[in-house]
Structure formats: C-alpha cells, structure tokens
Write a structure and sequence with these properties.
Bound molecules: 2'-O-acetyl adenosine-5-diphosphoribose
Strand content: 15-25%
CATH superfamily of the largest domain: TPP-binding domain
Order of helices and strands: EEHEHHHHHEHEEEEHEHEEH
Mean pLDDT: 94
Number of strands: 11
Low-confidence stretches: 1-8
CATH topology of the largest domain: Rossmann fold
C-alpha cells in the first residue's frame, strides 16, 4: 500500500478500504466543491486555470462590488450561467445520487452554485453558497428561480421594481439562515465524511472536516491535489472525482 507521511494514496487497496468504510456507514455526508464539476468543463476558483486567477473576487463577488457596478457583476454571472447551461453532470455527480439512493441517511453539502447536483438527481442539497439559477430582490427580498440564458435584460429586476441579484453567497456575507447548523448536525451524526473537489480554504465549509474528525467519523478526501485536509484525512485519494467516486460507491 502506498503511504507517504501518514497519507494514503490512490491505489486499489486504498480505494477498497475507503469503499468498505462507505459501504458499512449508516450515515454518510458528502461535502463537495468546484472540483466535482471540473470534469463537466466548469472552471474551478483556485489553481492555475482557476477563476480567481483571472478575475478579482472583490470586483465580482462581494456586496460592495454589486453596489458599485451591478451590470458588471451580472455580466460575469451571465457568462458563468452560459457556461454552466452547456455543461452536463458527470460520473462524480451521478455516483453521489447512487449513494443517496442506497443510504438511509445521506446528506449532500455543496459549496457549488452550478446546480449540477440537482440536474444529476440529488434531492436534498445543502447549498452553502446559494444557487446561480435563483435570483433575489435587493429591496423586497423575494427570491425565485430563473434559468433563462441569456437573461433578457441586465441587470434584472424584481416585480416590485427592485434590483435583483444572483441568489448566491458573496465574500463577507453570512450563509443562508440555519443551513450551516443543519450541515453541522449531519456531520456530527455521520460515520463517513467524503470531502470532494474542494481546496478546503473557505470557511465555514472547511470547518466541517475537523468537526467530523472530532465526532469520530472517517474522513475520505478525493482531490488530484494535496489540500489542508489531506494530512488530517483518514484516507486522501489523489484522483479525479469522476473516476474515483463511482468506484467508492460501487456495490459488492
Ligand atoms: P477551489 O477552486 O478552491 O478548489 C477546487 C478543488 O478541486 C481544488 O483543490 C482542485 O485540486 C480540485 N479538483 C480539480 N479538478 C478535480 C477533479 N476532477 N476531481 C476532484 N477534484 C478536483 O473550489 P472550492 O473549494 O469549491 O465561494 O472553493 C470554495 C469557494 O471559494 C467557492 O464556493 C467560491 C470560491 O470563492 C464563493 O464564491 C463564496
């Protein structure tokens, strides 16, 4: 078995061990990040091809940026909506649907706003950072789904006349009410936490990993790169989620 500084690598025996942990756990939580959608052709945020390498988050993903130039922010979201609309869920998204169908207690927590988990068939999803396919009024706070690509007019407005924004969480904003408590509750009850395709640098999402460890759950990471989670994980599989997740959820 390949092992380096206490960290397990991706090989058949390690994947099999992780598969057994997943198989025998009554309660499983999956925490996903941008990496799970990478194989669908959606760029991640960090890394050499990442969005934050080409764009400055403070100009596009903060409430201050939106107040300054709503049209510019909307143009960026419009571009991302166009990109995502052309993408299809991949084998990684589908494997999590299989796991949901097989487990009595399964919770999917995602930092992604792209909606590919929904399109794959995942049902109850804790979307910590919101949903790019929903809009929210900055005046009356109404929120609604809108999948039109492109949107007919930028920036879009609410029926009440107020300016609408993407229903996503920007830097400096709180997560949707009560959602993180629900995520913590699920993690505390789980025997396995799968940490998939996230750089684990953004909080509070990243704090679910030490919480899982403290609650006695096995932490299984899937990521082609090393992250801050890797050394603490019970098993860190270096590979792509579209390859590894179907193997992890495969029945006997
Ligand atoms: P990041 O872009 O920070 O990290 C993506 C991770 O996916 C990296 O660790 C990659 O190595 C990994 N990865 C790439 N391809 C993969 C593949 N095929 N299979 C598995 N993993 C792969 O994205 P997040 O961690 O999701 O927040 O970022 C967290 C938050 O930061 C985002 O939700 C967003 C961003 O700023 C907001 O916009 C509020």
């Amino acid at each position: 078995m390949a092992q380096e500084a206490g960290r397990l690598h991706y090989n058949g025996a390690v994947v099999e061990q992780a598969r057994q942990w997943v198989r025998s756990a009554p309660a499983v939580v999956a925490l996903t990040g941008a990496g799970i959608s990478a194989e669908s052709g959606i760029p991640t945020f960090r890394g050499s091809d990442g969005l934050w390498n080409q764009y400055r988050p403070e100009e596009l993903a903060t409430p201050e940026a939106f107040a300054r130039d709503p049209r510019l922010v909307w143009e960026w979201y419009q571009w991302r909506r166009e990109l995502i609309a052309k993408a299809e869920p991949n084998a990684g998204h589908r494997a999590l649907v299989e796991l949901q169908d097989r487990k009595k207690d399964f919770t999917l927590i995602t930092q992604n706003v792209d909606g590919l988990h929904d399109r794959a068939g995942s049902r109850r999803i804790l979307k910590l950072h919101g949903d790019i396919w929903r809009l929210r009024c900055t005046v009356c706070r109404a929120d609604w789904p809108d999948r039109r690509v492109p949107l007919p007019k930028l920036p879009p407005h609410c029926r009440c006349g107020g300016l609408a924004r993407p229903d996503v969480v920007w830097f400096g904003e709180p997560l949707p009410d009560g959602m993180f408590l629900e995520a913590e509750h699920a993690v505390r009850a789980a025997q396995v936490l799968l940490v998939i395709g996230t750089s684990a640098l953004v909080y509070p999402a990243a704090s679910l990993v030490p919480l899982a460890r403290a609650s006695g759950a096995k932490v299984i990471e899937i990521n082609p790169e090393e992250t801050p989670v890797s050394s603490a994980a019970d098993c860190s599989l270096r590979g792509r989620s579209g390859d590894l997740l179907p193997r992890l959820v495969a029945p006997d």
